[in-house]
Design goal:
Length: 134
């Protein structure tokens, strides 16, 4: 999550849950911590990280990963939150604009970059470890 979004959506409102919220809950895409940590480590460059490398791995535009980031780590087994495969109607889904579009949501539990992903509903901020990604 970009630092500005973290401040706007988590810190300033003192949010109790992560994700894109609507009247049914807060929806958050998640992936195994060890895989994301490896992707972040592989994206490290002198003075920061490579937004294009993160975007390619997660199947999102590089611009989503520009500037300082915050990585949220949540042990979903310990916390006991609702976890399921994401669907294309979930808030925050990056919709495909054409059949050739590769940086968008695809059914099946993997990002366009091949990283396993799940949807967590109502991820508690209090049970999350926040890690700075310069």
């Amino acid at each position: 999550m970009p630092e500005a979004a973290y401040q706007k959506y988590i810190v300033t409102p003192q949010a109790s849950k992560f994700g894109r919220c609507n009247d049914t809950g807060c929806y958050l895409f998640v992936a195994p911590a060890e895989i994301i940590e490896r992707v972040v480590a592989d994206s490290r460059r002198e003075g920061g990280h490579d937004p294009a490398a993160l975007g390619a791995a997660l199947g999102l535009p590089a611009k989503n990963f520009e500037g300082p980031l915050r990585m949220m780590v949540l042990d979903v087994g310990r916390v006991g939150v609702c976890v399921r495969l994401p669907v294309d109607s979930d808030p925050g889904v990056w919709k495909c604009t054409s059949a050739e579009d590769t940086s968008c949501f695809k059914q099946g539990g993997y990002t366009a970059g091949g990283i396993p992903e799940l949807m967590v509903i109502d991820a508690p901020v209090a049970d999350t470890t926040i890690i700075d990604v310069p």
